[in-house]
Amino acid sequence: GQQVMQIPQYQHVQEGEDFTTYCNSSTTLxxxxxxxxxxxxxxxxxxxxxxxxxxxxxKRLTFQFGEAKKNSSLHITATQTTDVGTYFCAGRAGNxxxxxxxxxxxxxxxx
Amino acid sequence: NAGVTQTPKFxxxxxxxxxxxxxxxxxNHNSMYWYRQDPGMGLRLIYYSASEGTTDKGEVPNxxxxxxxxxxxxSLRLESAAPSQTSVYFCASSEGGDGYTFGxxxxxxxx
Lengths: 111, 111
Prior knowledge:
The structure holds two protein chains of two kinds. Helix content of chain A is 0%, strand content 54%. By secondary structure, chain A is mainly beta. In chain A, the strands form two sheets. In chain A, strands 2, 4, 5, 9, 10 and 11 form a six-stranded mixed sheet that branches. In chain A, β6 (55-58) and β7 form a beta hairpin. Chain B is mostly beta strands. In chain B, β9 (87-94) and β10 (101-102) form a beta hairpin. Chain B is globular. Chain B starts with a strand and ends with a strand. The chains are: A mainly beta, B mainly beta. Chain A binds chain B through residues 30-31, 33, 35, 41-48, 88, 92, 97-99, 101-104, and chain B through 31, 40-43, 45, 48, 50, 58, 90, 92, 97-105.
Protein backbone atom coordinates (compact mmCIF):
# COMPACT_ATOMS: atom_id res chain seq x y z
CA GLY A 1 0.00 0.00 0.00
CA GLN A 2 0.88 3.65 -0.07
CA GLN A 3 3.50 4.59 2.50
CA VAL A 4 5.25 7.69 3.71
CA MET A 5 8.62 7.05 5.33
CA GLN A 6 10.03 9.66 7.65
CA ILE A 7 13.65 9.87 8.81
CA PRO A 8 15.26 10.11 11.24
CA GLN A 9 13.00 8.66 13.91
CA TYR A 10 14.76 10.62 16.65
CA GLN A 11 17.16 13.54 16.69
CA HIS A 12 18.97 15.15 19.59
CA VAL A 13 20.60 18.52 18.96
CA GLN A 14 22.26 21.25 20.97
CA GLU A 15 20.35 24.49 21.08
CA GLY A 16 21.49 26.59 18.15
CA GLU A 17 22.20 23.66 15.84
CA ASP A 18 20.19 23.05 12.70
CA PHE A 19 17.74 20.17 12.26
CA THR A 20 16.25 18.47 9.21
CA THR A 21 13.62 15.76 8.86
CA TYR A 22 12.85 14.01 5.58
CA CYS A 23 9.72 12.44 4.17
CA ASN A 24 9.71 9.96 1.29
CA SER A 25 6.60 8.60 -0.37
CA SER A 26 6.23 5.41 -2.36
CA THR A 27 3.81 7.22 -4.68
CA THR A 28 3.44 10.68 -6.18
CA LEU A 29 1.62 12.99 -3.84
CA UNK A 30 -0.85 15.72 -4.75
CA UNK A 31 0.17 17.67 -1.67
CA UNK A 32 2.01 17.25 1.60
CA UNK A 33 1.31 18.70 5.01
CA UNK A 34 3.51 19.14 8.07
CA UNK A 35 2.37 19.01 11.68
CA UNK A 36 4.06 19.57 15.05
CA UNK A 37 3.07 17.74 18.22
CA UNK A 38 4.48 18.95 21.52
CA UNK A 39 5.01 16.31 24.24
CA UNK A 40 1.62 15.47 25.74
CA UNK A 41 -0.15 17.62 23.15
CA UNK A 42 -2.01 17.20 19.92
CA UNK A 43 -0.79 17.61 16.32
CA UNK A 44 -0.91 21.18 15.09
CA UNK A 45 -0.98 21.97 11.38
CA UNK A 46 2.07 23.92 10.21
CA UNK A 47 1.90 24.16 6.43
CA UNK A 48 0.82 22.56 3.17
CA UNK A 49 2.90 22.28 0.01
CA UNK A 50 1.20 21.67 -3.31
CA UNK A 51 3.50 22.56 -6.19
CA UNK A 52 6.46 20.61 -7.50
CA UNK A 53 9.69 22.12 -6.14
CA UNK A 54 7.81 24.43 -3.79
CA UNK A 55 9.72 26.04 -0.93
CA UNK A 56 7.98 27.85 1.92
CA UNK A 57 9.42 29.52 4.99
CA UNK A 58 7.98 30.22 8.40
CA LYS A 59 10.55 32.18 10.43
CA ARG A 60 13.29 29.59 11.15
CA LEU A 61 11.41 26.73 9.46
CA THR A 62 11.92 25.94 5.77
CA PHE A 63 9.69 23.42 4.01
CA GLN A 64 10.44 21.89 0.61
CA PHE A 65 8.44 19.69 -1.76
CA GLY A 66 10.50 17.66 -4.20
CA GLU A 67 10.37 18.09 -7.95
CA ALA A 68 8.83 14.64 -8.39
CA LYS A 69 6.35 15.31 -5.55
CA LYS A 70 7.47 12.15 -3.78
CA ASN A 71 9.61 13.68 -1.06
CA SER A 72 9.64 16.62 1.29
CA SER A 73 11.80 18.09 4.01
CA LEU A 74 11.51 20.37 7.02
CA HIS A 75 14.61 22.27 8.07
CA ILE A 76 14.88 24.24 11.28
CA THR A 77 17.68 26.78 11.53
CA ALA A 78 19.25 27.47 14.92
CA THR A 79 16.97 25.27 17.02
CA GLN A 80 15.46 26.55 20.23
CA THR A 81 14.03 24.63 23.19
CA THR A 82 10.58 25.67 21.99
CA ASP A 83 11.14 23.50 18.88
CA VAL A 84 10.98 20.31 20.98
CA GLY A 85 8.31 17.89 19.79
CA THR A 86 7.46 15.40 17.09
CA TYR A 87 7.19 16.57 13.51
CA PHE A 88 4.88 14.63 11.20
CA CYS A 89 4.51 14.78 7.46
CA ALA A 90 1.28 13.63 5.84
CA GLY A 91 0.49 13.44 2.16
CA ARG A 92 -2.42 12.93 -0.15
CA ALA A 93 -2.25 10.75 -3.24
CA GLY A 94 -4.44 11.86 -6.10
CA ASN A 95 -7.95 12.88 -5.09
CA UNK A 96 -7.94 10.69 -2.00
CA UNK A 97 -9.37 12.68 0.88
CA UNK A 98 -7.41 10.69 3.47
CA UNK A 99 -3.90 11.62 4.54
CA UNK A 100 -1.04 9.11 4.56
CA UNK A 101 0.98 9.83 7.68
CA UNK A 102 4.66 9.40 8.36
CA UNK A 103 5.61 8.02 11.78
CA UNK A 104 7.19 11.31 12.80
CA UNK A 105 10.59 12.59 13.86
CA UNK A 106 11.01 13.36 17.55
CA UNK A 107 13.27 16.32 18.19
CA UNK A 108 15.00 16.90 21.52
CA UNK A 109 16.94 20.13 22.08
CA UNK A 110 19.56 20.38 24.79
CA UNK A 111 19.83 23.90 26.21
CA ASN B 1 -13.46 29.97 18.78
CA ALA B 2 -13.02 26.56 20.46
CA GLY B 3 -12.00 24.57 17.35
CA VAL B 4 -12.34 20.85 18.06
CA THR B 5 -13.54 19.81 21.51
CA GLN B 6 -13.13 16.26 22.76
CA THR B 7 -14.59 14.73 25.89
CA PRO B 8 -13.58 13.16 28.16
CA LYS B 9 -9.87 14.00 28.43
CA PHE B 10 -9.05 10.91 30.47
CA UNK B 11 -10.89 7.62 30.99
CA UNK B 12 -10.16 4.28 32.63
CA UNK B 13 -12.34 1.36 31.60
CA UNK B 14 -12.53 -2.23 32.65
CA UNK B 15 -12.31 -4.88 29.95
CA UNK B 16 -15.74 -5.40 28.43
CA UNK B 17 -17.14 -2.00 29.38
CA UNK B 18 -18.47 0.34 26.73
CA UNK B 19 -18.08 4.04 26.27
CA UNK B 20 -18.53 6.83 23.76
CA UNK B 21 -15.93 9.46 22.98
CA UNK B 22 -17.48 12.76 21.99
CA UNK B 23 -16.14 15.24 19.46
CA UNK B 24 -17.55 18.54 18.31
CA UNK B 25 -16.17 21.21 15.98
CA UNK B 26 -17.35 24.77 15.51
CA UNK B 27 -15.52 25.59 12.26
CA ASN B 28 -18.28 24.39 9.91
CA HIS B 29 -15.95 21.73 8.50
CA ASN B 30 -17.45 18.99 6.38
CA SER B 31 -14.92 16.25 7.15
CA MET B 32 -14.19 14.70 10.52
CA TYR B 33 -11.83 11.95 11.60
CA TRP B 34 -10.98 9.67 14.50
CA TYR B 35 -7.36 8.60 15.01
CA ARG B 36 -5.57 6.59 17.61
CA GLN B 37 -1.96 7.22 18.53
CA ASP B 38 0.27 4.57 20.07
CA PRO B 39 4.02 4.80 20.78
CA GLY B 40 6.01 4.03 17.64
CA MET B 41 2.85 3.61 15.54
CA GLY B 42 2.16 7.19 14.58
CA LEU B 43 -1.41 8.25 13.86
CA ARG B 44 -3.73 5.53 12.61
CA LEU B 45 -7.12 6.36 11.14
CA ILE B 46 -10.03 4.53 12.75
CA TYR B 47 -13.03 6.02 10.94
CA TYR B 48 -13.76 9.17 9.04
CA SER B 49 -16.76 11.10 7.81
CA ALA B 50 -16.29 12.98 4.57
CA SER B 51 -19.53 14.87 5.08
CA GLU B 52 -22.65 14.86 7.22
CA GLY B 53 -24.50 11.59 6.76
CA THR B 54 -21.52 9.52 5.60
CA THR B 55 -18.95 7.44 7.47
CA ASP B 56 -16.16 5.17 6.23
CA LYS B 57 -13.68 2.79 7.75
CA GLY B 58 -10.05 3.73 8.12
CA GLU B 59 -7.03 1.51 8.76
CA VAL B 60 -8.04 0.10 12.15
CA PRO B 61 -11.87 0.10 12.49
CA ASN B 62 -12.31 -3.23 14.31
CA UNK B 63 -13.85 -2.84 17.76
CA UNK B 64 -15.17 0.66 17.06
CA UNK B 65 -18.30 2.29 15.73
CA UNK B 66 -18.97 5.91 14.83
CA UNK B 67 -21.90 8.24 14.45
CA UNK B 68 -21.92 11.52 12.56
CA UNK B 69 -24.73 13.04 14.55
CA UNK B 70 -24.81 16.30 12.60
CA UNK B 71 -22.27 18.52 10.88
CA UNK B 72 -20.70 19.50 14.19
CA UNK B 73 -20.50 16.20 16.04
CA UNK B 74 -18.74 12.91 15.38
CA SER B 75 -18.70 10.31 18.14
CA LEU B 76 -16.63 7.14 18.55
CA ARG B 77 -18.03 4.16 20.45
CA LEU B 78 -16.22 1.23 21.98
CA GLU B 79 -18.83 -1.48 22.51
CA SER B 80 -16.67 -3.89 24.53
CA ALA B 81 -13.35 -2.38 25.48
CA ALA B 82 -10.18 -4.47 25.30
CA PRO B 83 -6.69 -3.74 26.69
CA SER B 84 -5.46 -3.42 23.07
CA GLN B 85 -7.64 -0.31 22.80
CA THR B 86 -5.56 1.49 25.42
CA SER B 87 -4.39 4.51 23.46
CA VAL B 88 -4.66 8.23 22.93
CA TYR B 89 -7.60 9.07 20.71
CA PHE B 90 -7.70 12.22 18.60
CA CYS B 91 -10.61 13.70 16.73
CA ALA B 92 -9.86 16.04 13.83
CA SER B 93 -11.76 18.05 11.28
CA SER B 94 -10.94 19.61 7.94
CA GLU B 95 -12.48 21.42 5.01
CA GLY B 96 -11.59 20.42 1.48
CA GLY B 97 -7.87 19.81 1.14
CA ASP B 98 -6.90 22.10 4.00
CA GLY B 99 -4.92 21.11 7.07
CA TYR B 100 -6.54 19.18 9.87
CA THR B 101 -7.51 20.75 13.18
CA PHE B 102 -7.11 18.29 16.03
CA GLY B 103 -8.79 18.12 19.40
CA UNK B 104 -6.70 17.83 22.56
CA UNK B 105 -7.21 14.07 22.78
CA UNK B 106 -8.67 11.42 25.08
CA UNK B 107 -6.25 9.28 27.02
CA UNK B 108 -7.97 5.91 27.44
CA UNK B 109 -6.72 3.05 29.59
CA UNK B 110 -8.44 -0.33 29.51
CA UNK B 111 -7.57 -2.60 32.42
